[in-house]
Amino acid sequence: MTPKVSIILANYNEEKYIAEAIESVINQTYRNWELIIVDDASTDRSQEIINSYKDSRIKTIFCKKNNHVAYASNLGIDMAIGEYIAKIDSDDVWEAEKLEKQVLFMEEHTEYGVCFSKVNIIDEESEEANTKFSDIFELFNKVKNRSQEEWIKYFLKNGNCLCNASAVIRKAALQCVGGHYNLAFVGAEDYELWMRLVIKFPIYVMNERLVRYRWEEAVGKISGFSLGKIYATFNLQTMVKSKMFDYMSDEEFEKFFRNEFVNNAADTKEEIECEKAAFMLRCTGKDVNFLGLMQYERLLEQPGILEVLQEKQGFSLPEFYKELRVRNFGIPGELEAKDVTIEELQRVVQRKEKEINQREQQKLILEKNIEDRDNKIKELEAIIEDYENSTSWKLTKPLRKIGTIVKK
């Protein structure tokens, strides 16, 4: 039987967690799947663990050279024969009914290109950590369903809020937008793919937590923070957002956003390009809003465009120059990076303080229990002492001695 779902698991040196990820796939209530494990040249015991599974639905690729997650995932996609593609990271865990619920939804709603779910956060010890990492929990769980145009604006302004390990992608939709992750965007390869997909297809988020998403504070993980990751986040978001109009035709741009045009009557190629610049300036968010300025810069190089901007958009060169003075081109310097690092460290401190307070509360409870026990012992000792001093106890003492002799 041809598997309906192809599950891609890319792994690199996750010997601590990969078995838990594989087991969560094997334990799915939905059974018609293949699991393609791509080991990206691990140097730990990962390959040994992978080879210990003898399920015929599991296929393996062992890379000789490490090329990171996007490349490894693409190898798995190339091997996939299912109607749907699902992605699980080697340190995450699926709930048992995940595939069953999402495949049923996709079968009943053929207009959607991707189905996501909400998540629970787990820590290094696989313990629930929704409160401990509340910012990450809220990022993935406050998400709501939106129209395609609302999603495009959200992605441009805010970035990603969808969990890669929760996605079930219609393979035909994936092939329609290139069929692979973009190798240039590791760290945001999923975000860039969602941008491509949502331009062509509506997407849906199930209001159930079907994934346990692992968040680690350790530097060097996809989760966690470091100065390099702060820079990478900015660079990747800028690169992804700058490509939006490469993915979107003029017809799609008009379909989604004509009601927001500065010039409602925009019709010519030049006028549509002017609207794209205005849209990009409005919608890319404070961190990368210079992308709109760059759109205008490219337009102003073209003969005759200034007149179109002035006539159709009320564009003003002096106002444009003011935008250059008040908007930050966003390249994060050391101070900005340190501010972000400090904020994250403060959150870590707050979490640790909360843990300490919880332990203090537990300590107080234990001390109270010990105090109660000691008081109970004292009460019992007092009762015994009163009983031993009682007349009846003294009168029966000879009988107790006789009983002891008889037993001997």
UniProtKB/TrEMBL annotation:
Keywords attached to this entry: Coiled coil
A Pfam family per the record: Glycos_transf_2
Molecular-function GO terms, alphabetical: hexosyltransferase activity
Coiled coil regions, renumbered to chain: 335-390
Matching SUPFAM superfamilies: Nucleotide-diphospho-sugar transferases
Domain Glycosyltransferase 2-like: 6-166
Signal peptide: none
Protein name: Spore coat polysaccharide biosynthesis protein spsA
Organism name: Dorea longicatena
Protein's gene: spsA
